[in-house]
Amino acid sequence: MNNKWYCHVNLKPQGPFSLEEVRAKVHKGEVGPQDLICDETSTWKPAMEWGIFEFQLFPASQGFIQGTEIADNVREWVLLVEQAVGVKPLQEGPFTVSELRESLINGNVSPYQYVWKTGLSGWCQLKDRPEFSMVISSERLSDPSLA
């Protein structure tokens, strides 16, 4: 197994990291399932395509069971809201799934903002959570300036 790994962070390659360090970044939500990573011998590809990072390791997939009903009106989601450059983001909420979906539709919240709820090992972007994917258009994801 290769021991030098690289991750894209804010569109800039970072690393090298050990496999254990990358796994820790995945578990904390610093690397999402669609974030690009590579090892020293391969090309960049989404983290979930590597096959060595279990899907349950990603906060984006934790606590969600395909086919179960989503609790739309339970206040459990905390949203990170960016402030001025160099100022620590604020945590706002809790919000319901319905409130966050409405904010996404109205453009008040970006798909690239981070959310968390009890049971997740780390923060993840709204775009990566299945509860919100149906209201996020592919157009907004391909052009972050629309987010």
Brief account:
It contains four helices and eight strands. The protein has 147 residues and is an alpha+beta fold. The protein folds into two domains: 5-57; 77-146, Dna Ligase, domain 1 (2-Layer Sandwich), CATH 3.30.1490.
Task: Give a quick set of tags describing it.
4-stranded antiparallel β-sheet; single chain; GYF_2; globular; Dna Ligase, domain 1; DUF4339 domain-containing protein; 4 helices; alpha+beta; 147 residues
Mean pLDDT: 86
| Percent helix range | 10-25%
What's the architecture of the largest domain in CATH terms? 2-Layer Sandwich
Tally of helical runs: 4
Contiguous low-pLDDT stretches (5 residues minimum) are none
Radius of gyration from the CA trace? Answer: 16 Å
Please summarize the sheet with the most strands.
4 strands, antiparallel
Could you give the distance between the termini? 38 Å
Q: In CATH's first tier, which class of the largest domain applies? A: Alpha Beta
Provide the β-strand percentage band.
Answer: 15-25%
Report on this model:
With 147 residues, the chain is α+β, with helices and mostly antiparallel strands. It has two domains: 5-57; 77-146, Dna Ligase, domain 1, CATH 3.30.1490. It is built from four helices and eight strands; from the N terminus they run E-E-H-E-E-E-E-H-E-E-H-H. The chain has helices at 19-28, 97-106, 130-133, 138-142, and strands spanning 5-9, 12-17, 36-39, 45-46, 77-81, 90-95, 114-116, 124-125. The chain has a four-stranded antiparallel β-sheet. Strands 6-5-7-8 form a four-stranded antiparallel β-sheet. The chain starts with a strand and ends in a 5-residue tail after the last helix. The model has no long low-confidence stretch (mean pLDDT 86). It comes from Bdellovibrio svalbardensis.
